[in-house]
Amino acid sequence: VACVGALDDVSRVVTRGLKRTDSDLLLVGCAANALGGSVAADVLGQIGGPLPAIDFERERRLIAFLLAPSTRDLVLSMTAVGDGGVAVAALRMAFASQDAGIDLDRFQGMRGKQSAGSFEALFSEQCGWIVETAALDAFYNEAARAGLSETDVVHIGSVTADRKFSQTHAGAFDIGELRDVWSKPLQEVYP
Question: Which of 8, 61, 91, 181 is 20 to 30 A from residue 191's alpha carbon, by CA?
Answer without folding.
Answer: 91
